[in-house]
Amino acid sequence: MTGLDPLRPRLPSPLQELSDPRFTRHGLRLLLKRDDLVHPELIGNKWRKLVPNLRASGGRPLVTFGGAYSNHLRATAAAGRLLGVPTVGVVRGQELAGRPLNPSLARCAADGMRLHFVDRSTYRRKTEPDVLARVLRAAGAQGAYVVPEGGSNAEAVRGCRALGGELRGRADVVGVACGTGGTLAGLAAGLAPDQRVLGIPVLRGGFLAAGIEALQAEAFGGRRGDWTLDDRFHFGGYGRTGPELEAFADDFEQRHGVPVERLYVAKLLYALVTLAEENAHPRGTTIAAVITGRPFP
After folding, report:
1. What radius of gyration do the chain's Cα atoms show?
2. Domains annotated on the chain, with CATH
3. What is the β-pairing status of strands 29-33 and 15-18?
4. Residue 168 neighbours by CB distance under 10 Å
5. Is 263 in a helix, a strand, or coil?
6. Which of helix, strand or coil describes residue 52?
7. pLDDT value of position 207
8. What is the dihedral of CA 223, 227, 231, 233, to 10 degrees?
9. Does residue 76 register a pLDDT over 90?
10. pLDDT for 126-149, tens place per residue?
11. Measured distance CA(187)–CA(196) in Å, rounded
C-alpha cells in the first residue's frame, strides 16, 4: 500500500452469521460479508473499486461522475482528502447549480472536491469521447485521471475479484446489490466454480446484464463465474425506497443490531428474505449477503 497508507484496509472483511427465523425455518444459513467495515471512510465496495484506480492514476487529479446523492462521489472526495489528491465531481443535473448543497454534496465539498454540474442530456452522453473532452475542458480537469460513474471499470472489476476469493468455500450463494455492476463482475470471477452470485439491481430497466458482461470482457476477456440477476426489488428505481422497505430495514436493524444502508443493502436483504419465503433455495443452502455500504451520517 506504499503511498496509499491512509487507505489501509481491514481485510479480509468479517463474515458474520445471523440467526434469523425467516431463513432457518427453510433450512438456510445467512451470513453477512461485512465489507462495510473494510475502511472507515471508503466503505465496502468503494474501497475495492477505488484503490486499484488510485494506483493506476499515478497521483494525478481525479475526476469522476455521479448523481446528487452518489456514495461514489463521497468516497472519491474522501480518498482525495486522505491522499492530498485534487478531485472533481461531475454532477448530474444543471438545475442543481447555485442551489444549497444537499448533505451528500456538502460532504464532498467539505472534503475538497470541486463540483461541476452538467445537464442531464450531457450526463447521459458522458462516455462519448467528444462529450467527455468537452466536459473535462469545462470542468478544468484536462489531464486528470477519469474514474467512471460508480467506479466501475476494468481496474475496479479486477479489484473486486479479491472479494470472491475471500468467500471461496464459505457459501453456496452470494447475494450482492448492483448499481453499475462492477462489484458483481469481479466477485463472480473470484468465486469457486460451484458457487453462484445473485445480483439485485437497484435501478429499474433490465439493462444491467449486458453491462456486467462488457465489464467482465474488458477485465478478463469474457464472461466469468455463475451469476444471475433478479430485477424485482428496485422499489421504483435508484434512490427510491418507500414505507415498506423502510419498515423492513428498521426491523432488520432491531433484530440483528446491524446498520442497514437503504439504497443498496436494504434492497438486497429484502430480496433475500423474499426468496427464502418463496423456497427459491434448497434446504441446506448457505447464503452470504455482501454488505457493500452503511448509512452515511
Report:
1. 19
2. 5-40+153-290 (3.40.50.1100), 61-143 (3.40.50.1100)
3. antiparallel
4. 12
5. coil
6. helix
7. 85
8. -140
9. yes
10. 999 999 999 999 999 999 999 999
11. 10
